[in-house]
What we know:
Elements: H1 2-5, H2 15-45, E1 52-56, E2 78-82, H3 83-112, H4 116-131, H5 133-138
Antiparallel strand pairs: 1-2
Helix pairs in contact: 2-3, 2-4, 3-4
Amino acid sequence: PAMLLFSKKIDFKDPEILKLVQGAFITVAVLMLSLYLYVYTLVTSRPDRNKAIWVSKPKPQLPFGLGPPPEAPKPEDFDETTYEKHEKKLLLEAAQSIIMSGAISFFMSIKFNVHMSLLIQSIMMPLNAFDMLVLKKYILGVQKSSDGTNLYNEFL
């Protein structure tokens, strides 16, 4: 929200400012993809990653607590996988998210002259990466979630 308040203060009609914003956007995108590639190499280099785990399937939720109350988990709500496959899947989803949001933002900037999305994405990409569990595990060294349970809410 704060970026939207300052959107009128930034002169995107100035070519110098526009080049700086585009350069910052491309730099952040390349850095984030490089970080994901580095973590991918860390994930694949671990030899003991073939332990079977059960991870809950993501369920679509309605906003603001609308909809039916949560049900007790059932065995069919979980997928059997390994740590390596699960972490690779999370990294692939994050990389696809960066590529898609980057392509949309850059297209909007070039085609429709809406340059604010470049600046917002330049700020949001590192924030989203900081929230990723795989990066918390391999870069920050976090082994348990904040409530003391397993990091991915997996069952062994």
